[in-house]
From TrEMBL:
Similarity field: Belongs to the TRAP transporter small permease family.
Residue ranges crossing the lipid bilayer per the database entry: 12-32, 52-70, 91-120, 140-160
Cellular component GO terms, alphabetical: plasma membrane
Record's bilayer topology term: Multi-pass membrane protein
Species for this entry: Gloeomargarita lithophora Alchichica-D10
Name assigned to this protein: TRAP-type mannitol/chloroaromatic compound transport system, small permease component
InterPro entries (UniProt xref): DctQ, TRAP_DctQ
Subcellular location: Cell inner membrane
Main location: membrane
Domain Tripartite ATP-independent periplasmic transporters DctQ component: 23-159
């Protein structure tokens, strides 16, 4: 089961990485277009491009969270952690996952869901002229937190298996 979650997480991570060059291009166009447009006396950017830049960043951040957890890349204070045995580290990681990560992400999912449903129900749009629809980007937190929750479960299963196989 958790191998499937890992594959899903890796796919989301690769999608997030693929969005980075697109974000760079859109951001570059927003800057170059603004100044070149002033020089040419034309409007070469739009609210849609500005919002697209924001949406791409959101997608990268939210889709990349589970990928970062999979690769054990989240920030932590390693003052004691690096000195501990693999077994003690596994216990700390398992308890942190079960007591902090999963409940917090479950809360985020619970809080986010009504906003996503409301945005889709009304077909929420940008308040700015020429802006993009907002309902789909408001779904990204739900997707990102859902992936993070699933990856947390996969991590807990993996750590539990490690602890069972490496009993004292």
């Amino acid at each position: 089961m958790w191998h499937g979650i890992n594959r899903l997480t890796l796919g989301a991570g690769w999608l997030a990485m693929a969005l980075v060059p697109l974000l760079v291009l859109v951001g570059t166009w927003n800057v170059v277009g603004r100044y070149l447009g002033r020089w040419l006396g034309m409007n070469l950017t739009s609210n849609a491009f500005l919002e697209l830049q924001w949406y791409l960043f959101s997608g990268i951040f939210l889709l990349g969270a589970a990928y970062t957890l999979y690769h054990n890349g989240h920030v932590r204070v390693d003052v004691l952690y690096n000195r501990w045995s693999d077994r003690r580290r596994a216990w700390v990681d398992l308890l942190a996952t079960l007591l902090f990560l999963l409940p917090f992400v479950a809360l985020l999912l619970w809080v986010t869901t009504p906003t996503v449903i409301a945005a889709w129900r009304i077909g929420e749009q940008s308040p700015d002229p020429g802006g993009l629809p907002r309902y789909w980007v408001k779904s990204l937190p739900l997707v990102g937190f859902g992936l993070l929750f699933l990856q947390g479960i996969a991590q807990a299963v993996r750590l539990g298996q490690f602890l069972r196989q490496n009993q004292r």
